[in-house]
Amino acid sequence: MLQAVLGVLADSGYERLTLEAVRERAGSAGALLEADDLDDLVVIALQHVRLFDVPEPTGSLRGDLESLLRPWLGGRRFEDKVIAGLLSAAEWDGKLRDAVHDSFDRPLAQAVGAVLARTCGRELPAPDVQTLNWILRGLALNRLRAKDARAHVDLDRLVEYLLAGLPPVRHAETGTVRA
Questions:
Q1: Cβ within 8 Å of residue 39, ≥6 positions away
Q2: Distance between CA 115 and CA 109 in Å, rounded?
Q3: pLDDT per residue over 50-82, tens digit each?
Q4: What is the pLDDT of residue 156?
Q5: Is 87 domain-assigned?
Q6: Is residue 134 part of a domain?
């Protein structure tokens, strides 16, 4: 049932998420679905959507940011389409807004925070971390809403732009300074 809900969201968006569409995809399990269950099923289904993973450590902030951003250069994945299908509806519905926050905003903040924490330790001021997270969130949202989600950008230059906005910091473990 949850996969049927996610499938309709990814293919058609929230506006076309109907009992009939979910029942059709869910097969015999769909017969148990009632109108009151639909938004609750969306919230539960979103708990299984994973947009952002913390990349494996590369030993540098530059490498970690490249690892975090590299998947964004391809076309939209199923999970991306699910979230894209909900963004407008989530703006006006508190339950959906919270669910999108939990499956989009929070994991992105955790991934960015983990990358920065292991590379910069506690040397980077909180406003810089929040600014970088805000910029990356904007890029991710743009990618979700774009007609052609494949990014036609130079990943190295993008990372350079991101790093240029951060102050020099001393690496927490090695003591080296990142410019």
A1: 93, 95, 96
A2: 10
A3: 888 889 998 888 899 999 998 888 888 899 999
A4: 87
A5: yes
A6: yes
The Cα 116–Cα 64 span in angstroms is: 9
Res 178 pLDDT > 60 = no
Sequence-ordered list of residues with C-beta below 8 angstroms from that of 78, at least 6 positions apart, any chain: 6, 10
Q: Are residues 22 and 93 in the same domain?
A: no
- Looking at the structure, tell me whether residues 34 and 101 fall in a common domain: no
The count of domains in the chain is 2
Q: Are 99 and 73 within one domain?
A: yes
Q: Show the domain range for 73.
A: 61-178
Distance CA 139, CA 118 (A): 22
pTM: 0.80
Q: Vertex 140, ends 101 and 149: CA angle to 5°?
A: 130
Kind and range of the H or E run holding 146:
none
87 and 38 in one domain?
no
Of 111, 112, 126, 106, nearest in space to 162 by CA: 112
